[in-house]
Design brief:
The protein is built from no helices and 6 strands. By secondary structure, it is mainly β.
């Protein structure tokens, strides 16, 4: 589950493994409109990904990457927690 800012659509909080993480800062964000590796040779714009990626820092100082897949037919898209970035 992800809670987003109503104006910007950016994530402000997410839940993972029954734990809530408040986002202190969005470190980076980018879009991906590319094609998946398994896309056919004849590509069509409808086959592109429509994802917004975010690298965020939570209130406990941990860093995560997540993305919002807007291209799915699910209302509101789908959020995916991609990774936790480990600190040195």
């Amino acid at each position: 589950m992800v809670v987003r800012d109503e104006k910007t659509g950016q994530p402000t909080m997410f839940q993972w493994q029954n734990r809530k993480f408040v986002i202190r800062e969005i470190i980076a964000e980018w879009q991906d409109y590319g094609f998946s590796a398994g896309a056919p040779r004849k590509k069509d714009w409808r086959m592109r990904r429509h994802r917004n990626y975010y690298r965020v820092e939570t209130n406990d100082g941990d860093i995560y990457e997540l993305y919002h897949d807007r291209g799915l037919k699910i209302e509101g898209g789908k959020w995916v927690l991609l990774s936790q970035i480990l600190r040195d």
